[in-house]
Amino acid sequence: MSSDGSAGPPPAPPLPPAGPLEPWPDTVRWQPISSDLIWVELIRLALVLVVLALGLGVGWAFSGSGFLGAALGVVLLFGVLRGVTIVRAVRAWGYAEREDDLLVRHGLLVRRLSIVPYSRMQFVDVSAGPLERAFELATVQLYTAAAASDARVPGLRPAEASRLRDRLTALGEDRAEGL
Region (Disordered) spans which residues (predicted)? Predict the structure, then answer.
């Protein structure tokens, strides 16, 4: 018996309420995107860094300016840090299809959870640039009446992107008929 005469340990204090983004809803089965998107983003970063580094390197070699040498160092350091964040950012993406809406989550420092009701979708777009096509990836873009609520799901295999596009389009048409 405890000192107050009751049997057993005292009840645990209640947990603080979860914020709107933390944690992600437990009742949702999140679908990850392809990790090949990491390579696509790293190649994009490398292309930009090569152009900047070449420009700064040539300028530094011809002028001998310490400022250009320091700028080159900053660009290379930024490239390394951005490479690390790309890996983590791609792994943070996920989407979930629910009965009435689609959830899309992403972000590291600023985490974002977008909830797009099927009835609000105006159209669904699938796109794939040259790098995405080289890695057999596509992006599904959702458009709604409110520009701020548009959402996208990058890094999907073409078959999954087509399936998701068709499903979202069908659900959007079904839900819109009731309005």
Answer: 1-20
Contact by Cβ (8 Å): 149, 114: yes
| Mean pLDDT value across residues 132-154 | 86
Q: What is the pLDDT of residue 96?
A: 92
Backbone angles phi, psi at 113, to 5 degrees: -120, 115
What is the rounded distance in angstroms from the CA atom of residue 27 to the CA atom of residue 24?
A: 9
CA distances from 110 to 22, 29, 70, 132 (A): 12, 22, 30, 25
Residue 83 token pair? 């490479």
More confident residue, 109 or 147: 109
Query: Which tens digits make up the pLDDT trace of 48-58?
Result: 999 999 998 88
Look up tokens 């603080």; give the residue. Answer: 16
142: closest CA among 169, 160, 162, 163? 169
pTM reported for the whole predicted model: 0.77
